[in-house]
């Protein structure tokens, strides 16, 4: 199959331009490049006035703020700090008494195709009741609550209920292992865990509660007094008396009414862990006011949300995309959204297309990896080809999480968008809270593979190591020079790491370093993201730290002496994880090597989760090191790619191991 070749070559020659189609321009909030430029100019002329205006227009404040941005503790920027609001009230209560009250908030489709609908009024009642249940467990403002939940209404309700009480949630993706969950519970200092007995994915029942039990038994989690269990399936699960309660038990007798607790705008709404360049994941802390403003604003700017839209973001609530564009943004904007429990390939790879058809989805927001795997499935089996479905309800497509190669972009445009829907290729990160560089559907001429231009107020630039701006056409590091409301506030428990990771002194100490490389096109100045510049990989749109995987491998102390992990490009998953391993016993070959590679993959899945399993494992008697003992990672990357070694290996202490590492298991 040739539909998904490596993107690099073709991006360099990309010169197709797709101007916004008339139906996207008509009635658009930002309906021309001139209108975009006007907002950019307004933001540049007086940033404080610009953000203050938008924060007042877009959010309901219980106490108005008097100061917009406080830079006195930079890079610990504070936004709207003396204002007070409640995030859940802004997503739900705010719509009561408006036409949105009885509008459908969530259309939920389960793994096995059952559909449930909830209006905003009904969702508010669900959230208020659940918040009362949390309150009855003693959970209050400032507490941290970990969620380990399937995709579904209950997960969104639990997040909103925490926000309603001013409790800070930390959602852990349901694919992470007990060990990864425990580390997060300990680091965040959770007092409660909200989970489900099982989750349903692709017709399979997968345990969640049992993993929570395992995590809590690992120690350090003594602060967790309550585990609330949503009984997703009828299957039995082990109960710990005095600690565990079902949702039904917790909700018994609670009132439908729960006044939202006002919090300061800087109050942490959530902490979401993501991978960084060291072994330990970082707890990215977001603030209530600035974050929510961004979630709402980008629904309006990037998706140009219309009242009749049916919005579908396929991301899981365990990731930032599921926070901003499932749990908060669509609700703050009063949208009708589809929430899906399952996987795109069950019962077959036509599932997404069927759901778009059945629910008349108008905005479809997904990841390039999903698109690429569905291209492959459609080409292999005509029965699941999108051309066989009625996708005419779509008016806008979005892409997120990794670079989209122009071939996948064109297929998305042609077969899903019917050549009429703009594609917003949204660049952002867990740390940015929401989109920062993205096309606007009614204004921006699109170039496949490019996230185009920064949103108004985002002062993005490409610089060299000393902070000098690079000319168009020359690559460099992506930075954002001015603070913006939804930026990361700190790394939970580690303010020093926050400063070091994102605001390096070489760039002046208050310029945000994104960790991505980028280049601007010579003609339009459009941004194109070239990939991470740190030791972070992007596998199927999921961030994985190479050091995190290395730590997991070397923690298998009976077997592994040393490990190094690098990425290599992969047509389907963007990047693939390649591990180079030195064992404490003789270097294995053949079947023995295969068996040990499997054992190591299973180990990594236990330590982190299946998403971190290395694709290739190569065994050497040693790793290629310089005479001073540094692992030659650049060389490892070439080996992982299967490239001929052109680098100078004369400093290599042990050149014979290059041949050993040539073999992957
Ligand atoms: O490398 C960039 C890539 O994903 C990273 C952020 O990952 P995460 O925090 O998990 O958030 C993913 C969802 C926003 C970035 O540093 N990335 C994200 N969006 C794009 C992208 N790379 C290229 N193009 C994008 N549109």
From TrEMBL:
Gene3D superfamilies: 3.30.300.30, N-terminal domain of ligase-like. The keyword S-adenosyl-L-methionine does not apply. Keywords: Acetylation, ATP-binding, Ligase, Magnesium, Metal-binding, Nucleotide-binding. One of its GO terms (biological process) is acetyl-CoA biosynthetic process from acetate. Its cofactor is Mg(2+). Catalyzes the conversion of acetate into acetyl-CoA (AcCoA), an essential intermediate at the junction of anabolic and catabolic pathways. AcsA undergoes a two-step reaction. In the first half reaction, AcsA combines acetate with ATP to form acetyl-adenylate (AcAMP) intermediate. In the second half reaction, it can then transfer the acetyl group from AcAMP to the sulfhydryl group of CoA, forming the product AcCoA. ATP binds at residues 401-403, 425-430, 516, 532, 543. Residues 548-630 form the AMP-binding enzyme C-terminal domain. PANTHER family: ACETYL-COENZYME A SYNTHETASE, ACETYL-COENZYME A SYNTHETASE 1. Its EC number is 6.2.1.1. InterPro entries: Ac_CoA_lig, ACAS_N, AMP-bd_C, AMP-bd_C_sf, AMP-binding_CS, AMP-dep_synth/lig_dom, ANL_N_sf. Belongs to the ATP-dependent AMP-binding enzyme family. The modification N6-acetyllysine is found at residue 630. GO terms for molecular function: acetate-CoA ligase activity; AMP binding; ATP binding; metal ion binding. Residues 102-484 form the AMP-dependent synthetase/ligase domain. This is Acetyl-coenzyme A synthetase. Residues 36-91 form the Acetyl-coenzyme A synthetase N-terminal domain. It comes from the Bacteria. One of its GO terms (cellular component) is cytosol. Mg(2+) binds at residues 554, 560.
């Amino acid at each position: 199959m040739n539909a998904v070749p490596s993107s690099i070559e073709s991006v360099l020659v990309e010169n197709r331009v797709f101007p916004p189609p008339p139906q996207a321009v008509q009635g658009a909030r930002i309906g021309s490049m001139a209108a975009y430029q006007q907002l950019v100019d307004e933001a540049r002329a007086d940033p404080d006035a610009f953000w203050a205006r938008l924060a007042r227009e877009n959010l309901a404040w219980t106490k108005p703020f008097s100061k917009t941005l406080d830079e006195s503790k930079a890079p610990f920027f504070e936004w709207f700090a003396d204002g007070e609001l409640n995030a859940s009230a802004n997503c739900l209560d705010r719509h009561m008494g408006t036409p949105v009250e009885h509008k459908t908030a969530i259309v939920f489709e389960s793994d096995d195709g059952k559909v449930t609908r909830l209006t905003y009024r009904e969702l508010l009642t669900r959230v208020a009741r659940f918040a009362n249940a949390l309150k009855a467990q003693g959970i209050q403002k400032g507490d941290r609550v970990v969620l380990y939940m399937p995709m579904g209404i209950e997960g969104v309700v639990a997040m909103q209920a925490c926000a309603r009480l001013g409790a800070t949630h930390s959602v852990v993706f349901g694919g992470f292992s007990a060990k990864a969950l425990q580390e997060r519970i300990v680091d965040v200092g959770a007092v409660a865990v909200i989970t489900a007995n099982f989750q349903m994915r692709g017709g399979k029942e997968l345990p969640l509660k049992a993993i929570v039990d395992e995590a809590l038994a690992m120690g350090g989690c003594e602060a967790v007094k309550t585990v609330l269990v949503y009984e997703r399936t009828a299957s039995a699960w082990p109960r710990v008396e005095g600690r565990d309660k079902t949702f039904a038990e917790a909700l018994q007798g609670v009132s439908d009414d729960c006044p939202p607790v006002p919090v300061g705008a800087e109050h942490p709404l959530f902490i979401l862990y993501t991978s960084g360049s060291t072994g330990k994941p970082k707890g990215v802390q977001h603030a209530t006011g600035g974050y929510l403003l961004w979630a709402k604003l980008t629904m309006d700017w990037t998706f140009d949300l219309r009242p009749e839209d049916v919005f579908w973001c396929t991301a899981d609530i365990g990731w930032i995309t599921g926070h901003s564009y499932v749990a908060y943004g669509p609700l703050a904007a009063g949208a009708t959204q589809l929430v899906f429990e399952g996987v795109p390939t069950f019962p077959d790879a036509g599932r997404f297309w069927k759901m778009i058809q059945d629910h008349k989805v108008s905005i479809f927001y997904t990841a390039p990896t999903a698109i690429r795997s569905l291209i492959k499935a459609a080409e292999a089996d005509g029965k699941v080809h999108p051309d066989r479905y009625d996708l005419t309800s779509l008016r806008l497509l979005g892409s997120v999480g990794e670079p989209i190669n122009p071939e996948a972009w064109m297929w998305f445009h042609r077969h899903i968008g019917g050549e009429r829907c703009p594609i917003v290729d949204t660049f952002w990160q867990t740390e940015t809270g929401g989109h920062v560089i993205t096309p606007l559907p009614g204004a921006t001429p699109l170039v496949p593979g490019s996230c185009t231009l920064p949103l108004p107020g985002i002062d993005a630039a490409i610089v060299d190591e000393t902070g000098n701006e690079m000319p168009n056409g020359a690559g460099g590091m992506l930075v954002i020079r001015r603070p913006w409301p939804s930026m990361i506030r700190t790394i939970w428990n580690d303010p020093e790491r926050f400063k070091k990771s994102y605001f390096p002194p070489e760039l002046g100490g208050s310029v945000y370093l994104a960790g991505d490389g980028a280049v601007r096109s010579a003609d339009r100045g459009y941004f194109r993201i070239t990939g991470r510049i740190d030791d972070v990989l992007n596998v199927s749109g999921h961030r994985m730290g190479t050091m995190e995987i290395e730590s997991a491998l070397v923690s298998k102390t009976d077997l592994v002496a040393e490990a190094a992990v690098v990425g290599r490009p992969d047509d389907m998953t963007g990047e693939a994880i390649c591990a180079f391993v030195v064992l404490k016993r003789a270097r294995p070959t053949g079947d023995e090597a295969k068996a040990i590679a499997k054992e190591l993959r299973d180990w990594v899945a236990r330590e982190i989760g299946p998403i971190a399993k290395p694709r290739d494992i190569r065994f050497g008697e040693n790793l290629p090191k310089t005479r001073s003992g540094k692992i030659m990672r650049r060389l490892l990357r070439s080996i992982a790619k299967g490239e001929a070694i052109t680098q100078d290996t004369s400093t290599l202490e042990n050149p014979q191991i290059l041949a050993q590492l040539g073999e992957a298991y």
